[in-house]
User: Fold these one by one.
Assistant:
Number 1:
Amino acid sequence: MTRNLTRRASLAALGGVSALALPANHARAQAPRELRLGLITPPAHTWNQQLTAWGTRLRDASNGRFTVTLFPSGQLGNEAAMLQQMQTGALDLSLLTVSEISNRVDAFGALLAPFIAKDIDEAVRMLRHPIALGLLNGLPQATGCVGFRYGMVGMRQLSTRDVTNTLADLRGKKIRITPAAPTRDFFNLIGMAPTPLPLPQIFEALSNGQIDGVDLDFESIINNRFQELCRTMLLTNHFMFPAVGMMSARVFGTLTPPDRELIRGTMTEALDALCNSMPEREARQGAQLRASNMQIRPTGPEFFGDAVAQFDRMWGPKAPALAQLRAAFPRG
Ligand code: BEZ
């Protein structure tokens, strides 16, 4: 309200007319539209920083017609709750993990398949491949949201409180996972006990031994100092971890076509920039972790026996993109 009056007054100043002389509907038409964007990550996270910068870019590119307010750290609820809010139009936008999306749309399980991308560079290329981009087309129908583009965090690694040398050392151990069916299935296949936990609850569970290990990227490990709680990191790159920049289809439908393209275009640029920055970040964060006391053991898919083949048999029929991606990005 205060912001509308201020803007009305400054418009009047520019036009040389009294603010009170402006018709009320003119003032309303000029008021900035606030877009609310919910995230599960905390303010210091790479995603939040990139999307804060996107908000500024959108405000400038729209000559102040749009502003973006971020709601970090799951303030609006977990991802399932945020998706529900976007479905009704109560929330405008989110960068939603593919983990949550795969709980609604099996086809996205392809992007969470073990060893689908060999490293972060390949993961960036894969998320821009037509096979991965094609999955976004199904989102409005399946989720009531428009999916603009993929963002990501780094590749996932398997870190354990105890020393891990062989697959037998992992059997029966509780591993924290992001709640997602494909992730759960892989860890079940290798004989671990997958334990879904949201990010903020991991530290306590790992400190007091409720869980034995974590499935996480370098940034999450470093931000939470898990390298001080884990003796071993199996440097597996076993999963990539994509997220999708999404907007409520209800809200999107209220925008003019040029504004839709403005939001889609600027969000795509921001998420592409995020993905472009990942290889350098991964190298820097990897060096930081190598300097810690945690033992880091490079580990390939062969360590996990036939679990990857079993996973493909389980998920291939539900996620046709899985076989397509394996064919388009063969392992040398
Ligand atoms: C996780 O649940 O592991 C996670 C979610 C968002 C960003 C990074 C990690």
Note: The first helix runs from residue 2 to 15.
Number 2:
Amino acid sequence: MDSLVIQGGMKLRGSIAVNGAKNAALPIMAAALLSDEPSLIRGVPDLQDVRSQIALLTGLGAAVLRQKDGALEIRVRDQSQSHAPYDLVRKMRAGICVLGPLLARRGRARVSMPGGCAIGDRPVDLHLRGLAALGARIRLANGDIVATAKRLRGAEIFLGGNFGSTVLGTANVMCAATLARGQTVIEGAACEPETVDLANYLNAMGARITGQGTPRLIIEGVRELHGCEYRVIPDRIEAGTFLVAAAISRGELRLQNVRLDHLVAVIDKLRQIGVRVEKCNGGVHVAAPQRLQPGTITTQPYPGFPTDLQAQFMALLALAHGNSIITEKIFPDRFLHVAELARLGARVHREGATVMVEGQPKLIAAPVMASDLRASAALVLAGLAAQGVTVVHRVYHIDRGYERIEKRLNQAGARIQRVDQAETE
Ligand code: EPU
């Protein structure tokens, strides 16, 4: 198991290219199961979660090929399998995305029920309610969701839950509805850019979806979908993580392959706390201020501030001049990074779904433990700023969502070394 050894205090300078979005690529890859013709998907990052999704699709009869130019070709060869086993779904929750496509195309799906994970319970009740409204019969057997339907039929479905819309639930129901008989209207749909990207990909395959990017999706069912070529959007969470990296290291970076329109809430927050963010040729330029102001952050569904950047901003605000308040409204238990940031000297006080961050002039290096993907990113960011050498253990979490993060940060002046964990114990 690898660890990252981070020499703190290096100012980042230079330029980093942002990769294609993991959370757009994973549901798009699953949606390729809806057609017998090949999809050529560009901009899919080379990540552990993508490799897990490839293993899952391969087990479901797809031939998945990474071409020389990096594009991913997915071609369904065998429709006889419809079981997504526990071993694969437990590693990566986006495995649940095959449920809707399998059900719509093969008439049956058996997908292991994802359990809880480091960021909370993460139920799938809304996914199942949506599919049931389309006419699927759904039961639970030995920990698996078993869904069957001859042909799904369009319906009006409300997908809002107690914590707002559901991103992957919308993906599952939208995919299933593309091949249903008649019209489906999804109210309370997720508006995230990744959901829009999936709808655009499905339309490129011949689906008839309108309303993407709004809470009301209208899907006219079609008999079949064809192959297509598609490029996934840039990763707004990776971009946000690098913006914080520049700010926390008191450096200056230019990011390429960025969609600023996907980062409005994030950039607004950075500017409020004093970080300079400016559009520049083909990207964005970010520069840290002398003094970081404190701020108030509440995570919300898009276009609000994303939960996937909450931990990274907590690391940044730990160094602000004053007290900040961070409230998590999507995953109220997504705070495993709090205790680890405290080990680096951050003054963080949690009360339920809110954390008060008492800004400090400095953080001091320490060994820390990564617990989930974004928490790990926050620890790496804190390590960039901390005085001394921080060791982040169990970085396999970070490899799930960031491609070679240490190499890319090092190219911009960071000093991060990847070592086998045994060497640091
Ligand atoms: N929820 C329900 N019932 C459901 C589904 C969700 O109550 O059936 C609740 C969840 O518990 C949560 C809220 O609704 O409180 C929103 O969850 P959502 O379903 O939108 O999350 P998700 O689709 O499982 C995706 C991303 C997450 C990201 C969330 C929120 C992927 C692969 N995952 O998860 O990304 O945090 O949307 O934006 O797209 C990450 O990349 O680190 C990550 C965790």
Note: The chain has two domains: 2-18+235-424, 22-231.
